[in-house]
Amino acid sequence: MTRAMEHNLNGSTLAPGDVQLIVQEVMLRFGGVTALAGVSLEVRQGQIFSIIGPNGAGKTSLLNCTSGLYRPQQGEILFSNHHQTTDLVHMPPYRIAKMGIARSFQNIELFKHMTVLDNIMAGCHVHMKTNILSGMLYWGAAQREEIAFRQFAEEIIDLLEIEAIRKQTVGSLSYGLQKRVELGRALAMKPALLLLDEPMAGMNSEEKEDMARFVLDVNEEHGVTIVLIEHDMGVVMDISDQVVVLDFGRKIGDGTPEEVRHNPEVVRAYLGEDLEQTELKSFSFSS
Amino acid sequence: MQSGIFHSTYEKDMALRHTPAQKIRLALVIVVIFALPFWADNYYLTLANQILITIIGAIGLNILTGFTGQISLGQGGFMAVGAYTAGLIATRLGMPLWLSIPIASLVTAAVGGIFGIPSLRLKGLYLAIATLAAQEIIVWLVTHWDAVTGGVDALNVRNYLWFQGARMRFTEFQFYWIALALCVGTVFATVNLFRTRVGRAFVAIRDQDIAAEVMGIDLFRYKVLAFATSSFFVGMSGALIAHWRQIVTWERFTVDISILYLAMIIIGGLGSVSGAIYGAIFMTLLPAFLNSVGRSLGGVFPLMDNLIPFIQKAVFGLVIILFLVFEPEGIAKMWRNVKDYFRLWPFSY
Ligand SMILES: Nc1ncnc2c1ncn2[C@@H]1O[C@H](COP(=O)(O)OP(=O)(O)O)[C@@H](O)[C@H]1O
Ligand SMILES: [Mg+2]
Fold this sequence. Notes:
heterodimer, A: six-stranded mixed β-sheet, four-stranded antiparallel β-sheet, 10 helices, globular, B: 4 strands, about 75% helix, about 0% strand
């Protein structure tokens, strides 16, 4: 139904399977609270990499360290793109964004007085060039750039099936639609690595199914690496290539969904019940 | 909100005006703007000039406060920088005003950018206090730097059309066209700014600064840029005042002015160019209107003569309060409501 996209959304120069992100012994404390107690993990290009764990386990903190909002006291976060590997610790968020890392937030952080379209256009910021003077003239190159990126933004709008609301102010939209727009804004950055913090939280099952389909689309059709924090075990087990389990800032499990499901420590500490007996909701992803 | 309009190309969809109603309104505004100076007497021309200059200053403040979300109480100070710079380089160096006005605007942009540096760390009321400090520092410098500014004494400004040229005295009619050109330029530049990349970054910072940074917007750079851009137009408005009045005194640039301009953009509509225009018109015409009412009342009740200025101030304040209570989003919003009503009229259900 959606027309094929002209643009590829993947901003990574790596080949599928190459190591893209290395988190090494990251330690983050807030006063007496240890949010991350030496976490290490490795994300490969093209993966859907899920992070699970109970509330307060440190999942959001790990994303915040990666996007530069938190500064860990110890450890390294190495990110590879454009044929170089950079330590993201000590780097300001806007430079990390320019390297190709995009994200969504657990509590939606949209530009709520802007329209859906403007939010997505704002996501294109790093790829646009118009400076303030040529913008004020809105002539020649500035106008051409606006039109070209408008076209790109419309492709994202098509992909996420939000054509009908493109001119609406995002503050007036439902929670589920706002989450979708936030994904769109992140995609507008043509990310090499997309960090999604509970993109399906608070949604009904139909909205969840849509969102899971979009995440899969972006990953399979465009090859964008995705780090996903999600509580819905059905979705996680269904779409992830690799799952990491955090508990009290420690990594207690790491592997394929199948391995994690059978990891005794995970079952004991996190799930508290016999996951193997739990009926997993099966999702159908029609494409 | 207009709806039911579809466009065949993105280019058309991105144009500023779409509907016949919008085009007719624009045509009317243009006719009024060009006919007014031929019809108006000197009193109304003076008011018109004051409005044009005020619009430039209000748009300047709205860029910073309404669009970028950085509250500023430094408006009066930045206007002073523009007015004194223009006045001094025109008078002391004999510079023509088509050069003194842009230079004064650029100088004010630089000063505004410098005073914008604390905005990286300070938000909301704290930033307001920091800009208040800028306001006070600038006025203090102006009144104490006698050797350059003449201190508390008024600075007489000369207008030249050319270097070493003959001194000009513009009539209100002549000055109208200068102010109009700069005002129209300011409106277009600002409207365009906010439909392109940098303007969107400003609004993004206002709405959600952390998300803006994670989208690749360098907060420090863009906040300083917002201060500089805003101050450019505020300085332009100050420079115009210097050349228009041909006299600059520090009393015109105190914190009262800063507060007046904040009230102006709140009443007109924060974060909207038309809001700044409505606010500037309203806040210029209301005192003039109250004045003339006061004068005619004074004729009828001579005993009230002493009271009338106070009553004027109270009414002015009251109108502002009523606005904030009944239409906090300003005149721009009221106008949108009226348009929506008539767009569907007579089927307004
Ligand atoms: N900005 C902060 N200041 C103080 N403590 C924080 C902050 N952010 C997170 N924490 C603490 O770090 C721990 C991990 O939080 P978080 O990463 O949000 O967990 P999760 O996303 O897994 O639910 C919690 O104990 C939380 O209270
Ligand atoms: Mg969280």
